[in-house]
């Protein structure tokens, strides 16, 4: 997992802005850059673009 990686959280697209050693990360909403949330890494999904479609892979 890395900073600026695009992820899905609660059905919305976010980018990771900080990762804590505790397993939490700060994520910023892609559509509203002023919205920041704290989420567990196990609760977010990574997005991988492949020919204009999204595939989702759960982080473990």
> Mean pLDDT across all residues, rounded?
82
As an assembly, this protein is single chain
First-last Cα distance: 10 Å
Compute the gyration radius: what is it?
Answer: 11 Å
Largest sheet: 6 strands, antiparallel
Element string (H = helix, E = strand): EEEEEE
User: What amount of the residues lies in strands?
Assistant: over 45%
How are the elements arranged and paired?
Layout: E1 6-9, E2 12-19, E3 24-29, E4 36-40, E5 45-50, E6 53-58
Antiparallel strand pairs: 1-2, 1-5, 2-3, 3-4, 5-6
Explain what this protein looks like in three dimensions.
With 60 residues, the protein is mainly β. Helix content is 0%, strand content 58%. The C terminus is likely disordered.
Summary of the model, kept short:
This protein is mainly β and 60 residues long. It has no helices and six strands. Mean pLDDT is 82; it is low at 50-60.
Task: Name some characteristics of this structure.
60 residues, mainly beta, six-stranded antiparallel beta sheet, 0% helix, globular, disordered C terminus
């Amino acid at each position: 997992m890395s900073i600026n990686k695009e992820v899905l959280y609660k059905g919305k697209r976010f980018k990771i802005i900080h990762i804590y050693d505790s397993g939490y990360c700060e994520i910023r909403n892609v559509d509203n850059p002023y919205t920041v949330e704290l989420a567990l890494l196990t609760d977010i999904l990574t997005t991988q673009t492949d020919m204009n479609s999204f595939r989702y892979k759960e982080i473990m």
